[in-house]
Design brief:
Layout: H1 21-24, H2 37-44, H3 54-57, H4 65-73, H5 77-87, H6 91-97, H7 111-114, H8 119-133, E1 148-152, H9 156-167, E2 171-175, H10 184-187, H11 196-208, E3 212-214, H12 225-231, E4 234-237, E5 243-244, E6 257-259, H13 260-271, H14 278-283, E7 290-294, H15 298-310, E8 314-318, H16 330-338, E9 342-344, E10 347-357, E11 360-376, E12 382-386, E13 392-395, E14 398-401, E15 405-406, H17 410-413, E16 441-443, H18 446-449, H19 454-489
Parallel strand pairs: 1-2, 1-4, 2-3, 4-16, 6-14, 7-8, 7-14, 8-9
Antiparallel strand pairs: 5-15, 10-11, 11-12, 11-13
Bound molecules: flavin-adenine dinucleotide and iron/sulfur cluster (2 copies).
Length: about 500
């Protein structure tokens, strides 16, 4: 091992080549190209094979990172793929969009002084190679089971659970209100972070593995939760969180002010070749406009970078805290700045001003106030305080509100008043068995955690599949014991 690994002293960190901002501003293709084989092997060999690998500890999936890095450095890619896919259903997706600077790479021990091993890029390389080489195969379970599981939501949590349950031989049906599979992977996250073919080949794999999809099926409207519970032996709710947080203030209802996810969904649908209705494409297209995005998370970063690519005249991101205190990934901020986005830190919107246009009054400016960060509150974060008389009018023909998401009222939507929720409206589960307050109804992903990350959704989906398996196995055993007892008594 020693000669091949531990190369971090002599080999500098190298990410795969990043396309120049001047080129990527004009298209929606991913911004990093792929590693060449030698480069992946060279970068994997920088790992020092820690006895206690902090990278693995800080990966929500507990990926066996040192071992697959070693296999990659040795050119044993098929084995590296077997190992990495044993703990992650979508390694090529996580490799692309995990905030590695906060997870595995941010905790790599050589990060201090030498820059971390490029774990995400190697993970992506291994699985992209596996797809190219035909090593990724549909699931053929060792034995089919009669029991079926209904999953509500075809996002990463639902899909990961489906794959794990299918491996055990369960009959799996997924219901989703969208017309496509993938949840936020398909309609939220833009193409330049995750090309849609990557998601669609996963969908095909699941279909080829005999997972059934019921799309355009809104649970609560087209079918009730009670009906799903009758139809299936267990149900998993993985519906994500979609109620956009709003902003208050005079003029907030003006045309030209839109929720971020509506904007990103319209852009993704256009990219997928859908005809986006004129009323949406008119409002939700940044071409030639001065765009202001309000918020400092991943959704805001995706909006500003989408607006650049749509040909906006100017793009500004307004955030009430500073760079160090924003929730979005620093890597994304850097990409956005390179692409020409202006960040207006420590600034909060107060009023939305309008002006007459040929289509009636529309937003024209965001009147904003400068912020000073005061004493930390109970959560430890400094409280934003307005600076008196510091107002400024920022030009805007399109304002996107990216302030986060809350869960819908699922007990009302599903006509299931006994479905327990937390104070935040997320589903309450028993973390030991991931079951909700309803027998045989489990939950996973953002609907349990609140808006989170893809890698956590995958983790939850896998855990839920295990718990569902235990639940169904216990049920089968007790009904077999009951039948045996009845026969013995006869
Ligand atoms: P979702 O992906 O939201 O999927 C839920 C599915 O349930 C959807 O398909 C929805 O249509 C369906 N559904 C909802 N209600 C019903 C119903 N009543 N009936 C039928 N179907 C229903 N995370 C990262 O790790 N990296 C990133 O770069 C990143 N970028 C993001 C960018 C944006 C714009 C957003 C909004 C989120 C981003 N995230 C990112 C977060 C990540 O996408 C989510 O944490 C993750 O998708 C949650 O997975 P999920 O399966 O729980 O829910
Ligand atoms: Fe890192 Fe995410 Fe891969 Fe885990 S899944 S190793 S956190 S990129
Ligand atoms: Fe390798 Fe860094 Fe993980 Fe250590 S922490 S095993 S050096 S990737």
């Amino acid at each position: 091992m020693a000669e091949r690994m531990l190369k971090f002293v002599g080999t500098p960190q190298a990410m795969p080549a990043k396309r120049p901002a001047s080129a990527r501003r004009h298209d929606f293709q991913e911004i990093y190209s792929a590693y060449a084989r030698d480069k992946a092997s060279e970068q994997a060999a920088r790992c020092s094979q820690c006895g206690v690998p902090f990278c693995q500890i800080h990966c929500p999936l507990g990926n066996n990172i040192p071992d697959w890095l070693k296999l990659t450095s040795e050119g044993r890619l098929e084995e590296a793929y077997e190992l990495s896919s044993a703990t992650n259903n979508f390694p090529e997706i996580c490799g692309r969009i995990c905030p590695q600077d906060r997870l595995c790479e941010g905790n790599c021990v050589i990060e201090k002084g030498f820059e971390s091993v490029t774990i995400g890029s190697v993970e992506k390389y291994i699985t992209d190679t596996a797809w190219e080489q035909g090593w990724v195969k549909p699931i053929v379970p060792r034995r089919e089971r009669a029991e079926s599981v209904g999953i509500v939501g075809a996002g990463p949590a639902g899909l990961a659970a489906a794959e794990q349950l299918r491996r055990k031989g369960y009959q799996v049906a997924i219901y989703d209100r969208y017309d496509r599979v993938g949840g936020l992977l398909i309609y939220g996250i833009p193409n330049f972070k995750l090309e849609k073919e990557i998601v669609q080949r996963r969908e095909k794999l699941l279909r080829d593995s005999k997972v059934t999809f019921h799309l355009n099926c809104d649970v609560g409207r087209d079918v009730t939760l009670a009906q799903l519970r009758e139809r299936h032996d267990a149900v998993l709710i993985a519906t994500g969180v979609y109620k956009a947080r709003d902003i208050s203030g005079p003029g907030v209802g003006l045309p030209g002010i839109a929720p971020a996810l509506d904007y990103l969904t319209a852009s993704n649908r256009a990219g997928l070749g859908d005809k986006v209705p004129a009323h949406e494409s008119g409002v939700l297209d940044a071409k030639g406009k001065h765009v202001v995005v309000i918020g400092g998370g991943d959704t805001a970063m995706d909006c500003v970078r989408t607006a650049v690519r749509q040909g906006a005249k100017s793009v500004r991101c307004l955030y009430r805290r500073d760079r160090a205190n924003m929730p979005g990934s620093q890597r994304e901020v850097k990409h956005a700045e390179e692409e020409g986005v202006e960040f207006v830190w420590l600034t909060a919107p107060q009023t939305f001003l309008g002006k007459a246009s040929s289509n009636g009054e529309r937003v024209s400016h965001v009147r904003s106030v400068r912020i000073h960060l005061g004493m930390p509150d109970a959560t430890g974060r400094q409280t934003p305080q307005e600076i008196p008389d510091s107002h400024v009018n920022i030009e805007a023909d399109l304002v996107l509100k990216a302030l986060g998401f809350d869960p819908e009222d699922l007990p009302a939507l599903f006509a299931a008043p006994d479905l327990g929720v937390t104070g935040w409206g997320t589903l309450r589960i028993d973390w030991k068995n991931m079951m909700t307050s309803l027998d045989g109804v489990f939950a996973a992903g953002d609907i349990v955690r609140g808006a989170s990350l893809v890698v956590w959704a995958v983790r939850d989906g896998r855990d839920a599949a295990e718990r569902i398996h235990s639940y169904l196995a216990t049920k089968a055993l007790s009904s077999a014991n009951g039948a045996a007892a009845r026969i013995a008594a006869e």
